Each structure stands twice: as C-alpha cells, then as structure tokens.
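Problem 3 from the worked examples.
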Amino acid sequence: MSERTPAESEYTYRAAWSPEDAAYLGQCVEFPALSAFGDSLEEALTEIRSVVAESIDILKEDSEAIPEPFSRRNYSGRLSLRIPPATHRLAAIEAAEQGVSLNQYLTSRIESGLAPPALARKLASLRHAIHEITCALNAGTPTAMYIREGNETGARESQPDDQA
C-alpha cells in the first residue's frame, strides 16, 4: 500500500527580505534548491508554495522520490551526539553548577539556540543572572549570605561572626 502524496501545505516554509534581490525570498526547507520571490512576505510564501506544488507534480510524473515533509516525520526525542571530550566536560560542569542534569542542561541550551533571537537574549540574560547568584552562593559573599537567609524549610543558616 503506497502512502499518499504529500500536499504542498504539509511542508515547512520560510520567507524573509533579501537585500541582494531587493525582494522577499520564499524557501521550503524540504526542497532546499527551490525559492521564489515576492513583493511581500505573503506573496513570497504563496509563490514558493506554488513552486513546491508544481515540483511535487513533476516528481510524481517522473516517478522520482518526493521529500517527506517534516510534519510527517516521527521523532523519538532521543538524540545521539558526538562532541569533543573537553566540550562534554564543560557541559557537565555547567550542568552541575546549575543544579540540573546534563540532559536538562543540553536540552535547555538547544532550545535557547532554536528560540527567536529576542527570546534567546532573554534566556541568556536569565542564565547569566542565575550563574552570578550561584557563584555568589558558592563564594559565601555578603550578597550570598543575604540570599541564603532562609532555606526551603524556613530555617536560617548560621553566618560567621564577622558577617552577622
């Protein structure tokens, strides 16, 4: 039993202004060799969708393979990744400093890298603030002593006499 031919609407599209072409450029992730221009984002997207639909028809007529849309692909959520040992060590240290598992740390870093730029900047700022607080807590500075005034049970931690 053959799977039905994907519709052009199932594919992943992007459109952005192209300064080199002085027009909006529409592209399809699954068909990287295809592109289309428009005077607006909407027009560029409409044009690339039309080009993809025509390409699907041609591939089908020629009995060629039609790229599978990302929307149809199954993802397990598991990823095997090879990284240099030094990078692995640094990631493990960062995860430990943040009090999270290596998996949680790497997932967070990947997600922030995939986030829109404004969100990525906010996440980086929050990550930096958390890191500074963690460093202050580990160093036992007066700021850290203020932050440490109460733990989750509400008990106060003891402070050295010179900082009381």
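Problem 4, a separate protein:
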Amino acid sequence: MCGKSLGFPVEWTGGGLLSTSRDLARWGAALYTGRAMTGDYLAELFSAVPVAPDLPAVTYGAGVAVYSSGPFGPVYGHAGWIPGYVSSLRHYPKYGVTITFQINTDIGIIDSDDDVLRIIEERVVVHGILCRMYSDQRHCNGTFQ
C-alpha cells in the first residue's frame, strides 16, 4: 500500500493522504478484519454511540460509522468530502467485501436531493458481492478486496 501526504489545510482532520481506490480498499479490508495492526483493536474500533436519536441503526465508533442493518447486512466505513472531491470506504462483513470509490467532483453529489452516494455504493457492492461469490476475475480484475 502506498499513500502520499497532501498537506491541504482545507481538509482539516482528513489526514491529508492521497491514495488509489484499490489501496484504500486493501487498507479497509485489513482494518475491518483485524489485520491492519497488532493486538485486539476491533472491539475498541466498533465501540460506538448513536449518531442521532432518530437513527438508532447508525452509530459512530473510533473513526468508523457502523450501520447495523441494511440491504446487505451490517456495514462499517466512512465517507469523505472536501470541495471538489468525494470518497467512500465500506466493508460488508457478511460477504467479506470491501468497496471504495473516489470521485473528482462534488457537483451533483453533495448538493443533490437524491442520495447519490448510497446509490453508487449499492451498485458497486452488488458487483463486489457477485465477484466474490463467483470468483469472476474476467469482470472483477482484482478490484474488490
């Protein structure tokens, strides 16, 4: 895995790293399956509190959103946004699939009334699950972790 420091003051607590979607998926798969660091860190990572009273199925842990229910089971991850860029990392433990995507615009995404990120995530995860289930390397190119 490789990353490069961006040093953008606008992105505040985002970490200032550049990465490819593939490397980000590798990192997410390792992080959410307990292979990223030594020790038993997953309990602390997923120790979460509700984000809002009207969203009991969404909690936030140590830098990770935990969605306890959804069309593909529980989901761990985080999305990011700085002006002009949107990214998302999601791990679906039921299927052992980690997806990421990075978009080099925020026009029509952040300011949309539609849940564009959710729509993109659902389409990408369906593809990832099918790749994992059928080991169809002709269509997957190893892009899903």
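Solution to problem 4. The first strand starts at residue 4 and ends at 5. The mean pLDDT is 81.
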